[in-house]
Amino acid sequence: xxxxxxxxxxxxxxxxxxxxxxxxxxxxxxxxxxxxxxxxxxxxxxxxxxxxxxxxxxxxxxxxxxxxxxxxxxxxxxxxxxxxxxxxxxxxxxxxxxxxxxxxxxxxxxxxxxxxxxxxxxxxxxxxxxxxxxxxxxxxxxxxxxxxxxxxxxxxxxxxxxxxxxxxxxxxxxxxxxxxxxxxxxxxxxxxxxxxxxxx
Length: 200
What we know:
- The structure is a single chain.
- The protein is an alpha/beta fold.
- The chain has a single domain (about 15-125, about 155-195), classed as Vaccinia Virus protein VP39 (Rossmann fold, 3-Layer(aba) Sandwich), CATH 3.40.50.150.
- Helices cover about 30% and strands about 20% of the residues.
- The protein has 6 helices and 7 strands; from the N terminus they run H-E-H-E-H-E-E-H-E-H-H-E-E.
- The protein has a 7-stranded mixed beta sheet, with helices on both faces.
- Helix 4 packs parallel to helix 6 (about 165-175).
- The protein is globular, with a radius of gyration of 16 Å.
- The model is unreliable at about 1-5 (pLDDT under 50).
- Pfam families: Methyltransf_11 (PF08241).
């Protein structure tokens, strides 16, 4: 595990601030989908009084529970866990959506949001070659620079590669299922989706 000044870094952690900046004022309950060992959930807890993290990978959740704090951690499948519909002000997810059917995942996240709540996702998708090659090469170079400066923390959760859905497919799904959402493709081989559920 490489760290810089005691701080963890990897491509996913790099985009945690995007998630945290999306938390709406006055949010009371947040859900971290695919929480792993809980780093994002702990970040959310600094802004939101009640945070739940859920993940299928029991060893990662056990690591999360070793950290002090009052985040609730669940070992389970968020697609089927009996959360109440419209019960969260924030639903967040980092590097998790490609582990499941993307349409089902987005629909479930939408269902769990209260009116006015915010969905914030950072995900992985598959490039369309050769069109995306220059962008991907730039991302690899930037990632190499960051790792040299900051180290690279290896998370304990299982990996899925390659992602089953392409960037254009993800953008289209977001437009279809989350009308008005903001989809952005980022340099470090990630995308983000930010969506606020209409208040009525």
